[in-house]
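Submission checklist for the structure archive. All mandatory fields must be present; incomplete records are returned to the submitter.

[x] Identifier: Pyruvate, phosphate dikinase
[x] Organism: Kribbella aluminosa
[x] Residue count: 359
[x] Sequence attached
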Amino acid sequence: GDELVASVHRLITHADEVRRLGVRTNADTADDAARARRFGAEGIGLCRTEHMFLGERRESVERLILADDDAEREAALAELEPLQRGDFLELLKAMDGLPVTIRLIDPPLHEFLPSMEELAVKVAVARERGSASEHDVTLLAAVERLHEQNPMLGLRGVRLGLVIPGLFAMQVRAIASAAVELRARGKDPRPEIMIPLVGAVQELQLVRDEVSRVLTEVGVDREIPIGTMIELPRAAVIADQIAEAADFFSFGTNDLTQTTWGFSRDDVEGAFFSRYLEKGIFAVSPFESIDREGVGALVRTGVERGRATKPDLKLGVCGEHGGDPDSIHFFHEVGLDYVSCSPFRIPVARLEAGRAALD
Ligand code: PEP
Ligand code: MG
């Protein structure tokens, strides 16, 4: 047992000496970050901040979504900001001295609201008894207004930030002020801000301007890089333009696979893919291992066009593929700077990054 552990350790140490790819982790909590650090993570490549809006914070989020004037919206954001600040403080502390890419909130809003069907039944039953609460009626109207047939192709990512004033600014203020506080305590926080689901340079430029304005207000404008996910085919194709407004790219190969193939990442398995695999039409799911001809070609295009604009543009990947051995070889070949994967896949990612360099 001990001998095996020692030889695996030697192997990984050797891989670390030869690999060119950095290995970061996807982590949303200080616990995950600390665990990943023990596995050798060299930073966080993706912190999904949407997870921070669940639990008891749902009420404030609901208030934010229901707000129908500036004052109500600002009040809801003011409730969330100190909580977010605490989240980022813990995360940056756990990753002290290492880069932490924090992605601004991404998912469709309806994920924070009750299900339309259940609420409609509740309101209908209450109405029959003449006792429907005003809150539930207003909530139902909002849920109906936000309902989308294809929410993953709808109001999420950068679109949310552009439609709800102050939402991204609140998160950025929380990140920046957490960094200022840690620095005052002698720590070395290294946050990076990442914008999700960008498809047009106009979207990125508008958000970038807002983010920069907040960073200037907090007095940290020069130190915090602002980058974007590349997770839509259009973003990969116009990466030369996008690079003008980005300090770094991180390829979101989950959404990029979904949008390139037109496969719903949430439904594909049950809908038909298991049968594709059974029949041998495909040997492996493109959500597991990078599809080099399609999705991979878009990644390559994004790399080439992005670096044509900015030769030193920092490039990473934070989709599930970042922890998949075959995909890691591909990311090495196309010249990414780092992969980011879940904490438990870090050792394998280090090993494969080393093997890719030796090949
Ligand atoms: C992605 O789309 O690859 C990604 C990393 O973001 P998420 O999985 O959160 O959509
Ligand atoms: Mg995504």
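[x] Structure attached
Curator remark: Residues 231, 252, 254-255 surround magnesium ion (ligand 2) (CB under 6 Å). The first helix runs from residue 2 to 18.
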